[in-house]
Amino acid sequence: MPDDASAPIATPSDLTDIYRLLLGHVPEHIERRWATEARLGRENTGKAIELLRRQCIAENPLGLKVQQIVQFGQLLALLREPEATRHAIAALRAGASFSDLAGAAESGLIVAGMQAYSLGLRIIDKLAAEADAASEAGRPAA
């Protein structure tokens, strides 16, 4: 970290690279958070958070694919559908298969019960249908 507390601790591209890699874009809620932090003069707080996320996600010893599958399973256990969907997409973009996601859903069954498992299968079904439709239309999936 720089000696000067007011010095930037990361560049914008450093912060957006992981989102673009895993999701293809920076989620709107993240951009809104950054805008609010900037308006409040608290950009370094947001940058510190993103650097921690980079360390824990992009530089995780599990690797991106496994790490995203784990996050998918964790979010299923918490019944957080939008977030679980986002991490399922990220896992697929990182090389996971639908079977890998099903394994995480099965872990969700053991940890959090039928609701977590059913949520996982609904997300997988929706993403698989979207992938099939994209394939039939000759465009890339998610």
Q: Tell me about the largest β-sheet.
A: none
Q: How does the helix and strand content classify structurally?
A: mainly alpha
CA-based shape = globular
Helix content: over 70%
First-residue to last-residue Cα separation: 36 Å
Mean pLDDT: 88
Question: How many distinct beta strands?
Answer: 0
Number of helices: 7
> How large is the radius of gyration?
17 Å
How would you characterize the overall build of this protein?
The chain is mostly helical. Helix content is 73%, strand content 0%.
List key phrases describing it.
142 residues; mainly alpha; 7 helices; 73% helix; disordered N terminus
SSE map:
Layout: H1 12-23, H2 28-39, H3 43-57, H4 64-77, H5 81-93, H6 98-112, H7 114-136
How would you concisely characterize the structure shown here?
The protein has helices at residues 12-23, 28-39, 43-57, 64-77, 81-93, 98-112, 114-136.
